[in-house]
Protein backbone atom coordinates (compact mmCIF):
# COMPACT_ATOMS: atom_id res chain seq x y z
CA UNK A 1 0.00 0.00 0.00
CA UNK A 2 2.87 2.39 0.81
CA UNK A 3 4.29 1.71 -2.63
CA UNK A 4 0.96 2.59 -4.23
CA UNK A 5 0.73 5.84 -2.29
CA UNK A 6 4.28 6.84 -3.22
CA UNK A 7 3.56 6.00 -6.86
CA UNK A 8 0.39 8.06 -6.74
CA UNK A 9 2.31 10.98 -5.30
CA UNK A 10 5.03 10.66 -7.90
CA UNK A 11 2.53 10.42 -10.75
CA UNK A 12 0.30 13.19 -9.46
CA UNK A 13 1.85 15.75 -11.74
CA UNK A 14 1.59 13.39 -14.67
CA UNK A 15 -2.10 12.96 -13.96
CA UNK A 16 -2.44 16.70 -13.85
CA UNK A 17 -0.62 17.04 -17.10
CA UNK A 18 -2.98 14.51 -18.69
CA UNK A 19 -6.18 16.03 -17.32
CA UNK A 20 -5.26 19.66 -17.77
CA UNK A 21 -5.16 19.68 -21.58
CA UNK A 22 -8.77 18.48 -21.70
CA UNK A 23 -9.78 21.30 -19.37
CA UNK A 24 -7.94 23.87 -21.46
CA UNK A 25 -9.30 22.54 -24.76
CA UNK A 26 -12.79 22.85 -23.29
CA UNK A 27 -12.12 26.50 -22.55
CA UNK A 28 -10.50 27.21 -25.92
CA UNK A 29 -13.36 25.69 -27.90
CA UNK A 30 -16.06 27.56 -26.03
CA UNK A 31 -18.57 24.68 -26.04
CA UNK A 32 -16.97 23.16 -22.97
CA UNK A 33 -17.23 26.27 -20.79
CA UNK A 34 -19.61 24.50 -18.41
CA UNK A 35 -17.28 21.50 -18.21
CA UNK A 36 -14.31 23.75 -17.44
CA UNK A 37 -16.32 25.54 -14.78
CA UNK A 38 -17.20 22.21 -13.14
CA UNK A 39 -13.52 21.27 -13.11
CA UNK A 40 -12.61 24.64 -11.62
CA UNK A 41 -15.17 24.08 -8.89
CA UNK A 42 -14.18 20.45 -8.31
CA UNK A 43 -10.48 21.30 -8.00
CA UNK A 44 -10.95 24.71 -6.42
CA UNK A 45 -8.96 26.46 -9.14
CA UNK A 46 -9.13 30.24 -9.10
CA UNK A 47 -9.50 32.34 -12.24
CA UNK A 48 -5.86 33.39 -11.84
CA UNK A 49 -4.71 29.77 -11.61
CA UNK A 50 -6.83 28.84 -14.63
CA UNK A 51 -5.22 31.63 -16.65
CA UNK A 52 -1.74 30.52 -15.57
CA UNK A 53 -2.53 26.90 -16.44
CA UNK A 54 -3.81 27.91 -19.85
CA UNK A 55 -0.66 29.95 -20.49
CA UNK A 56 1.55 27.05 -19.36
CA UNK A 57 -0.27 24.68 -21.72
CA UNK A 58 0.11 27.11 -24.63
CA UNK A 59 3.84 27.53 -23.89
CA UNK A 60 4.31 23.76 -23.77
CA UNK A 61 2.46 23.30 -27.04
CA UNK A 62 4.52 25.99 -28.75
CA UNK A 63 7.82 24.68 -27.37
CA UNK A 64 6.95 21.10 -28.32
CA UNK A 65 6.08 21.91 -31.91
CA UNK A 66 9.69 21.73 -33.14
CA UNK A 67 10.31 18.30 -31.62
CA UNK A 68 6.97 17.00 -32.93
CA UNK A 69 7.83 18.22 -36.42
CA UNK A 70 11.30 16.65 -36.17
CA UNK A 71 9.77 13.38 -34.94
CA UNK A 72 7.29 13.19 -37.81
CA UNK A 73 9.97 13.90 -40.41
CA UNK A 74 12.33 11.34 -38.90
CA UNK A 75 9.60 8.70 -38.80
CA UNK A 76 8.77 9.31 -42.47
CA UNK A 77 12.48 9.08 -43.30
CA UNK A 78 12.81 5.86 -41.29
CA UNK A 79 9.88 4.33 -43.14
CA UNK A 80 11.44 5.32 -46.48
CA UNK A 81 14.81 3.95 -45.40
CA UNK A 82 13.29 0.59 -44.52
CA UNK A 83 11.44 0.47 -47.82
CA UNK A 84 14.62 1.39 -49.71
CA UNK A 85 16.71 -1.10 -47.71
CA UNK A 86 19.06 1.63 -46.44
CA UNK A 87 22.25 0.76 -44.61
CA UNK A 88 22.27 0.14 -40.87
CA UNK A 89 24.43 3.24 -40.46
CA UNK A 90 21.79 5.46 -42.10
CA UNK A 91 18.97 3.83 -40.14
CA UNK A 92 20.94 4.25 -36.89
CA UNK A 93 21.36 7.97 -37.60
CA UNK A 94 17.62 8.35 -38.10
CA UNK A 95 16.91 6.37 -34.93
CA UNK A 96 19.23 8.75 -33.07
CA UNK A 97 17.20 11.72 -34.37
CA UNK A 98 14.00 10.05 -33.14
CA UNK A 99 15.55 9.42 -29.73
CA UNK A 100 16.64 13.05 -29.54
CA UNK A 101 13.15 14.29 -30.41
CA UNK A 102 11.62 12.01 -27.76
CA UNK A 103 14.08 13.32 -25.20
CA UNK A 104 13.09 16.89 -26.06
CA UNK A 105 9.41 16.00 -25.71
CA UNK A 106 10.04 14.45 -22.27
CA UNK A 107 11.96 17.55 -21.20
CA UNK A 108 9.04 19.76 -22.23
CA UNK A 109 6.62 17.54 -20.30
CA UNK A 110 8.81 17.72 -17.18
CA UNK A 111 8.99 21.50 -17.49
CA UNK A 112 5.20 21.63 -17.86
CA UNK A 113 4.69 19.37 -14.83
CA UNK A 114 6.98 21.60 -12.76
CA UNK A 115 4.90 24.57 -13.86
CA UNK A 116 1.69 22.83 -12.79
CA UNK A 117 3.27 22.08 -9.43
CA UNK A 118 4.10 25.76 -8.99
CA UNK A 119 0.55 26.84 -9.89
CA UNK A 120 -1.61 24.30 -8.05
CA UNK A 121 -1.65 23.55 -4.36
CA UNK A 122 -0.92 19.98 -3.20
CA UNK A 123 -4.65 19.53 -2.46
CA UNK A 124 -5.59 20.63 -5.98
CA UNK A 125 -3.02 18.28 -7.50
CA UNK A 126 -4.36 15.45 -5.32
CA UNK A 127 -7.93 16.18 -6.44
CA UNK A 128 -6.76 16.11 -10.05
CA UNK A 129 -5.08 12.74 -9.51
CA UNK A 130 -8.22 11.30 -7.92
CA UNK A 131 -10.36 12.66 -10.78
CA UNK A 132 -8.04 10.99 -13.28
CA UNK A 133 -8.28 7.69 -11.42
CA UNK A 134 -12.10 7.88 -11.41
CA UNK A 135 -12.17 8.53 -15.15
CA UNK A 136 -9.86 5.65 -15.97
CA UNK A 137 -6.86 7.78 -16.90
CA UNK A 138 -4.54 6.06 -14.45
CA UNK A 139 -5.46 2.43 -14.98
CA UNK A 140 -3.05 -0.24 -16.02
CA UNK A 141 -3.05 -2.16 -19.24
CA UNK A 142 -2.42 -0.86 -22.74
CA UNK A 143 -2.72 2.78 -21.67
CA UNK A 144 -0.07 2.35 -18.99
CA UNK A 145 -0.43 3.95 -15.62
CA UNK A 146 -0.75 2.57 -12.15
CA UNK A 147 -1.97 -0.82 -11.07
CA UNK A 148 -2.93 -1.77 -7.58
CA UNK A 149 -1.45 -5.08 -6.52
CA UNK A 150 -2.67 -7.13 -3.57
CA UNK A 151 0.86 -7.44 -2.25
CA UNK A 152 1.36 -3.65 -1.92
Question: How much helix, percentage-wise, in residues?
Answer: over 70%
Tally the helices: 5
Q: Termini separation (Å)?
A: 4 Å
Radius of gyration: 19 Å
- Principal-axis shape: elongated
Helix/strand-derived category reads mainly alpha
Please, what is the oligomeric state? Answer: single chain
* Tally of strands: 0
Largest sheet composition: none
Question: How are helices and strands ordered from N to C?
Answer: HHHHH
Average of per-residue pLDDT values: 75
Q: In what range is the share of β-strand residues?
A: under 5%
* Uncertain ranges: 1-11, 24-29, 138-152
How are the SSEs placed, and which strands pair?
Layout: H1 2-28, H2 33-43, H3 47-83, H4 88-119, H5 122-134
Helix pairs in contact: 1-2, 1-4, 1-5, 3-4
Describe this structure in words.
It is a single chain. The protein is mostly helical. It is 79% helix and 0% strand. It contains 5 helices and no strands. The longest helix is centred in the middle third of the chain and has 37 residues, at 47-83. It starts with a helix and ends in an 18-residue tail after the last helix. 22% of the residues are buried.
